[in-house]
């Protein structure tokens, strides 16, 4: 990871903590955990990464995709998206892949895009509970039957904040916990603790049920 990438990430954290949510890009260990099982298959795959930032997960995803697979990158931060586009355009291995860029919130994606896998880097703990619900419902509607949703959260951070935050913040975080727990509980779920990250994180993988059909 370049110094420029770290400085860009830190700059955006300071300016836009609400939708950045981290002080440093995710580690390679977390990227591997978040992309485990995304290898190309006999059928063309369509993937959506939401909140790719400077590309910590993007590069790992691309290393697994075949020439017929397609990756959609949805980023609300124009500065980060421009950086990522230039990085991909200058990377010979990425030039061989099919990449589509979207500068918008995921709820505003155009068309009837349906995907096999979603990798989400959004900081749910920063959002209002209603927005978390809206984003999760968007993910559910975009995923094909049997598709997977992958997201991560920092280990125990929400619980610690709930214990020490003011009442209004505690209520917000508890509602987010309720929303996420309910959503995860309605799908087949695997989670993995990644200690080699700052801070340590939990990588979640949810498989959508057939009700999307």
Summed up:
With 213 residues, the chain is an alpha/beta fold. It is 42% helix and 22% strand.
Spell out the blueprint of helices and strands.
Elements: H1 3-15, H2 17-20, H3 28-35, E1 46-50, H4 56-62, E2 70-74, H5 78-89, H6 92-95, E3 98-102, E4 115-120, H7 129-142, E5 143-154, H8 157-164, H9 167-185, E6 188-194, E7 201-207
Parallel strand pairs: 1-2, 1-4, 2-3, 4-5
Antiparallel strand pairs: 5-7, 6-7
The SSE string, one letter per element, is HHHEHEHHEEHEHHEE
Beta fraction:
15-25%
Please report the number of helical segments: 9
Average pLDDT confidence is 87
Question: Would you write up a description of this structure?
Answer:
The chain has 213 residues and is of the alpha/beta class. It has helices at 3-15, 17-20, 28-35, 56-62, 78-89, 92-95, 129-142, 157-164, 167-185, and strands at residues 46-50, 70-74, 98-102, 115-120, 143-154, 188-194, 201-207. β1, α4 and β2 (70-74) form a beta-alpha-beta unit. Residues 16-21 have low confidence and may be disordered.
